[in-house]
Amino acid sequence: MHDEIHVVVDSISAADETALKDDQRCHILRLIIRHGDLEWQDGERSLAELFGMVDATGKLPITSQPPIGVVVELFTKLAQEGKKVIMLTVDSVLSGTYQTACVAARQVMDDIKGADIRVIDSKTAACPISGIAMEVLKHTAAGMDIDEAEKMVARTETFFSVNTLDYLQKGGRIGAVGALIGSIFGIRPIVHLDKEGRLEVADKCRTRKKVMKRMVEMAAEKAPIEAIFVAHAEALADAEDLKQQLQGLFPNVPTMLTGIGTVLAAHLGPGAIGVFVRRKA
Questions:
Q1: Who contacts 37 (Cβ-Cβ below 8 Å, separation ≥6)?
Q2: In this predicted structure, what is the pLDDT of residue 171?
Q3: What would the mean pLDDT of 25-32 be, rounded to a whole number?
Q4: Rounded CA separation 273/125 (Å)
Q5: Residue 32: which residues within 8 A CB-CB, separation 6 or more?
Q6: Contact present, 133 and 88 (Cβ < 8 Å)
């Protein structure tokens, strides 16, 4: 097995819930969450704990990207070991992780002769990033070079919805979506990430049932597809339902279901749910 190409993902990828957790060729950079005097790395606390803190105080947590020193340290270690690196980051519209990783990569490549570090904006979030990483590692293990592996990204379509607009409106980070829809009317937006990774309201529904129906329909419109992903914030029953509906439509397409982690949950709130499909090339 070829192992000269390693993959780095950030914790928003939910890699801890996949086979990547035990793959020595995959490395996870963890984002940071702060609530009051508490600070932790993504993955160290549960969503239930996070939502409990918000309910108790009425205040949302603050999230931040991995410190650049941590990124430089990891890239330096891998480069010194002779590894080529592909880093897949969460959508750069949602986080500054991509920009930080680019700065770190340039620094390490300037310092270490022959270092090869590619930083790629996935233009998505949650488990489809892990899905891309797993695909890259599978193909590079079989001999694919880093240039070809880099081209595998950017075929993922992202749809998500929230069960409450409170987090969107209070957080402000993606508050533009909340601003488009008045919660007083009970409207639930379905958000799509466009080709540039920007958020756009794809549809508006009045019930959770209709949201789920439309998300399945919109995902199915992207066929032919080669992979399906479902992610959720304490909404396992709905996530399982979406997974079953999509598997019914695409019985031979591999499907992954995970949570979304505390960083995304801090911005989207309890009940958030996402459907992602990777189009065939």
A1: none
A2: 63
A3: 97
A4: 12
A5: 39, 40, 41, 42, 63, 64, 65, 66, 67
A6: yes
C-alpha of 78 from chain center? 23
Reading the block at residue 14, the tokens are 């939910």
Alpha helices in the chain (DSSP H): 47-57, 68-80, 97-111, 127-141, 146-150, 166-171, 175-180, 208-220, 236-249, 261-268
Show the tokens assigned to 94.
């949602």
Look at residue 184 and tell me whether its pLDDT is greater than 50: no
Is this model's pTM higher than 0.90 or not? Answer: yes
121: its two tokens: 């904006």
How many whole angstroms separate alpha carbon 111 and alpha carbon 254? 41
Q: How confident is the model over 146-162, as a mean pLDDT? A: 83
Evaluate the CA torsion angle 195, 199, 200, 202 in order and state its sign: positive
> Does residue 173 register a pLDDT over 60?
no
Whole-number average pLDDT of the chain: 91
209-236 burial, b at 16+ Cβ within 10 Å, e below that, comes to eebbebbbebbeebeebbbbbbbbbbbe
pLDDT of residue 254: 96
